[in-house]
């Protein structure tokens, strides 16, 4: 890499650090935010999903904005909006204001995250060099995820939960200064068109589906509001795909999915969001709520998940050149699945060495699958569509995260509530269902008089672990199915493409 491009790489890496740092910091601070603002488990899900939902829904349009109006301009605007959203979160006195700030952050993130890959793709046309830089980008992203839980835990315990958002202000301003001086403006306006109807439909279906899943977790699958929201969500998805197939300038070019490699890469990206990205939320809640660790202790205990990813990611470019994208991606999803399957046997008193080893295996899986999936999708489409392609792969991943937080969170909450209700009924506690819901949803242990807080907490920890197991088992199954899909479809397609390329060169 030439020295003249080092400042550009530094700016893009730092921008990614700012956007992703907020995700891991917020996860470890959730129990503290729950107590400070007096919100229930569904509210915690929305604190995460308000960000990821907007990130996914706006990302496709954001990619087009970068292609049309300039990748540098839109990316720097995203950093500035993200700083503003962080300020709103920091001064939030209640859940609604906090969610407004998270929405602003999500919209900004939709400009930042795909914009980073697009800028790197334009700056590094050589495939081998680009793969190395993207591998480094993924490694730096892992640094943000690694430092987030640790720094976040320390900030929460020493300066209050607001500080986890305030830290974004100086980092964001430094990124703007560095990026403005180093990034070269590029655009391809002939390939970009804002699809406002498609944007509205994407927000409708993803928002309705998320609302339905979170409501089902809180009130049950038979709840009228949940059922209506789920029906609207699926209908909205059908309408969105139908409109995108007919409109001449769609924000989601379905023609890209005719390449089976690109289609499978995006299915895998969605599964990665639903499993691995969602797991950070679940791990943080389990360590603090079931095992009783503080925010700082929970952050430190999640470190192997990100540390292994940080160490391995720089080598991914070389490994991809030697073994191909599909082999690394398949191995990555198998490792993620094994890690989550192992989590089905951990409990409130499980020694940390066991959990730490499972985190390390999951980190290896992330290192193999995240940068490889991104690089694969970028290589399966025309270079001039880099902004759109980057947006699509990231939108499917964040969409998977939004659905994963809602779905796996609902499974964990429902299973934990059912188990705790059964435990309390066996112990002869009156109003067992209401006591269980208060404990699982609001972390409220004051409702029980018969057994005392400590007795209820012990039963709660066991039930919470049972809910965690249900979510982990579901995620493990999704990971294994995705690995099978990659091995059965992407690997042969990639091999055929390589043979055709070699034949055309020889001819």
Automatic annotation (TrEMBL):
<dbReference type="InterPro" id="IPR004638">
    <property type="entry name" value="EmrB-like"/>
</dbReference>
<dbReference type="GO" id="GO:0022857">
    <property type="term" value="F:transmembrane transporter activity"/>
</dbReference>
<feature type="transmembrane region" description="Helical">
    <location>
        <begin position="99"/>
        <end position="120"/>
    </location>
</feature>
<dbReference type="InterPro" id="IPR020846">
    <property type="entry name" value="MFS_dom"/>
</dbReference>
<keyword id="KW-0813">Transport</keyword>
<feature type="transmembrane region" description="Helical">
    <location>
        <begin position="328"/>
        <end position="348"/>
    </location>
</feature>
<feature type="transmembrane region" description="Helical">
    <location>
        <begin position="43"/>
        <end position="63"/>
    </location>
</feature>
<dbReference type="InterPro" id="IPR036259">
    <property type="entry name" value="MFS_trans_sf"/>
</dbReference>
<feature type="transmembrane region" description="Helical">
    <location>
        <begin position="468"/>
        <end position="491"/>
    </location>
</feature>
<protein>
    <submittedName>
        <fullName>Drug resistance transporter, EmrB/QacA subfamily</fullName>
    </submittedName>
</protein>
<feature type="transmembrane region" description="Helical">
    <location>
        <begin position="196"/>
        <end position="214"/>
    </location>
</feature>
<feature type="transmembrane region" description="Helical">
    <location>
        <begin position="263"/>
        <end position="286"/>
    </location>
</feature>
<feature type="transmembrane region" description="Helical">
    <location>
        <begin position="402"/>
        <end position="422"/>
    </location>
</feature>
<feature type="transmembrane region" description="Helical">
    <location>
        <begin position="75"/>
        <end position="93"/>
    </location>
</feature>
<keyword id="KW-0812">Transmembrane</keyword>
<feature type="transmembrane region" description="Helical">
    <location>
        <begin position="132"/>
        <end position="155"/>
    </location>
</feature>
<feature type="transmembrane region" description="Helical">
    <location>
        <begin position="226"/>
        <end position="243"/>
    </location>
</feature>
<dbReference type="GO" id="GO:0005886">
    <property type="term" value="C:plasma membrane"/>
</dbReference>
<dbReference type="InterPro" id="IPR011701">
    <property type="entry name" value="MFS"/>
</dbReference>
<feature type="domain" description="Major facilitator superfamily (MFS) profile">
    <location>
        <begin position="8"/>
        <end position="496"/>
    </location>
</feature>
<keyword id="KW-1003">Cell membrane</keyword>
<keyword id="KW-1133">Transmembrane helix</keyword>
<feature type="transmembrane region" description="Helical">
    <location>
        <begin position="161"/>
        <end position="184"/>
    </location>
</feature>
<dbReference type="Pfam" id="PF07690">
    <property type="entry name" value="MFS_1"/>
</dbReference>
<feature type="transmembrane region" description="Helical">
    <location>
        <begin position="298"/>
        <end position="316"/>
    </location>
</feature>
<comment type="similarity">
    <text>Belongs to the major facilitator superfamily. EmrB family.</text>
</comment>
<keyword id="KW-0472">Membrane</keyword>
<feature type="transmembrane region" description="Helical">
    <location>
        <begin position="354"/>
        <end position="381"/>
    </location>
</feature>
<feature type="transmembrane region" description="Helical">
    <location>
        <begin position="12"/>
        <end position="37"/>
    </location>
</feature>
């Amino acid at each position: 890499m030439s020295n003249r491009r080092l400042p550009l790489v530094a700016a893009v890496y730092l921008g990614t650090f700012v956007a992703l740092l907020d995700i891991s910091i917020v996860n470890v601070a959730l129990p503290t935010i729950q107590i400070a603002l007096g919100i229930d488990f569904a509210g915690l899900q929305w604190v995460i999903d308000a960000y990821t939902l907007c990130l996914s829904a706006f990302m496709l349009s954001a990619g087009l904005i970068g292609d049309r109006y300039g990748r540098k301009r839109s990316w720097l605007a995203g950093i500035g909006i993200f700083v503003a959203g962080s300020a709103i979160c920091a001064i939030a006195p209640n859940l609604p204001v906090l969610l407004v700030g998270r929405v602003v952050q999500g919209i900004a993130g939709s400009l930042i995250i795909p914009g980073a890959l697009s800028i790197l793709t334009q700056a590094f046309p050589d495939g081998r060099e680009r793969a190395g830089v993207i591998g480094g980008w993924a490694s730096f992203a892992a640094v943000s995820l690694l430092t987030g839980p640790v720094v976040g835990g320390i900030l929460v315990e020493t300066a209050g939960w607001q500080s986890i958002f305030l830290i974004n202000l100086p980092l964001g301003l430094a990124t703007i200064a560095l990026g403005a001086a180093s990034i070269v403006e590029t655009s391809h306006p002939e390939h970009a068109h804002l699809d406002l109807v498609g944007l509205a439909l994407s927000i409708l279906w993803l928002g309705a589906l998320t609302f339905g899943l979170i409501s089902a977790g809180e009130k049950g699958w038979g709840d009228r509001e949940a059922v209506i929201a789920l029906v609207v969500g699926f209908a909205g998805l059908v309408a969105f795909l139908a409109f995108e197939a007919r409109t001449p300038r769609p924000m989601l070019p379905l023609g890209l999915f005719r390449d089976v490699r690109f289609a499978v890469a995006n299915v895998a990206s969605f599964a990665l969001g639903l499993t691995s990205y969602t797991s950070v939320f679940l791990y943080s809640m389990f360590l603090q709520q079931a095992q009783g660790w503080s925010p700082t202790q929970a952050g430190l205990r999640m470190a192997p998940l990100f540390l292994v990813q940080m160490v391995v990611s720089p080598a991914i470019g070389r490994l991809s050149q030697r073994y191909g994208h599909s082999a690394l991606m398949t191995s990555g999803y198998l490792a993620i699945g094994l890690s989550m399957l192992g989590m089905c046997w951990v409990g409130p008193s499980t020694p940390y060495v066991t959990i730490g080893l499972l985190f390390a295996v999951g980190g290896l899986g992330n290192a193999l699958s995240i940068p490889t999936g991104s690089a694969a999708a970028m290589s399966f489409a025309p270079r001039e569509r880099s902004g759109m392609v980057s947006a699509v792969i990231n939108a499917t991943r964040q969409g998977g995260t939004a659905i994963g937080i809602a779905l796996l969170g609902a499974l964990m909450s429902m299973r934990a509530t059912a188990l705790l209700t059964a435990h309390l009924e066996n112990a002869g506690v009156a109003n067992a269902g209401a006591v269980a819901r208060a404990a699982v949803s609001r972390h409220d242990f004051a409702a029980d008089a018969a057994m005392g807080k400590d007795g209820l907490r012990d039963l709660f920890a066991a039930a919470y672990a049972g809910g965690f197991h249900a979510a982990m088992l579901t995620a493990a199954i999704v990971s294994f199915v995705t690995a099978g899909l990659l091995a059965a479809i992407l690997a042969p397609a990639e091999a055929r493409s390589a043979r055709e390329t070699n034949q055309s060169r020889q001819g």
